[in-house]
């Protein structure tokens, strides 16, 4: 599903009059979750899932076929864990 199809789906389920309103709602949700994760806060939507930010440790290794080595830095990454309600609904759709 591409973004345009998703906007139409949100418009239908959210009873929005226009696609612009539905797209604004999607953008507001994404911006709010992003802002919370940047502030290192978790966002939990009961029955849907949890958005968290986690520290991903840096790693070091060698490039295959050469003697070159590399090291990556630690960084914060977003994570999503599906809730039971979402898992159950997806399992029913098989």
* Sheet having the most strands: 3 strands, antiparallel
CATH level 1 class label = Few Secondary Structures
Q: What is the succession of H and E elements?
A: HHEEEEEH
What is the rounded distance between the termini?
A: 17 Å
Determine the CATH topology: HU Protein, Chain A
pLDDT averaged over residues: 94
The secondary structure category is alpha+beta
Order of strands across the main sheet: 1-2-5
How many domains? 1
Protein name: HU family DNA-binding protein
GO molecular function: DNA binding
InterPro entries: Hist_DNA-bd, IHF-like_DNA-bd_dom_sf
Family: Belongs to the bacterial histone-like protein family.
Give your account of this protein's structure.
This protein is α+β, with helices and mostly antiparallel strands and 94 residues long. The protein has one domain: HU Protein, Chain A, CATH 4.10.520. It is built from three helices and five strands. Strand 3 (60-62) and strand 4 form a beta hairpin. The longest helix has 20 residues, at 19-38. It is elongated. The model has no long low-confidence stretch (mean pLDDT 94). Keywords: DNA condensation, DNA-binding.
